[in-house]
Design goal:
Structural class: alpha+beta
Distance between the termini: 26 Å
Number of helices: 6
Radius of gyration: 14 Å
Number of strands: 5
Shape: globular
Helix content: 40-55%
Amino acid sequence: MCRDTRGLLVASNELFSRMFSKGEPANLWRWALFSEEARTVLVHWEERWAPDLIAELRLARCRYPADDTVRALYADVVREPALQRIAAEPSRGLNGQARPLCHPMRGEGAARFMAARAAGVSVLTILFEPAAQ
């Protein structure tokens, strides 16, 4: 999976695409932060995912202050009652961290993120580690 700085999906593989019941979202940030589906797929969303996603969005807002998409997305986060409390917590980040995930095709497991940034593009590789059976 590869997304740009605004959360727009640039590339992905078939297994990644199958995580989404309605097809790949146009904006991965928006899906992960606001969709009900994300709150099921991204296991322990409120505790394990949302704080780090908001931290990454804050970082994008600082890196790209003139980007209208990033600014609008962050404005939506701080207006959303369910995200206001989470946004007020201390920041963390996704890189290198494992987060619980329930893949619709592969079941329970963990997603480990490996981030790289170059030339205005963020490449986020997500490694799926199935849960021990």
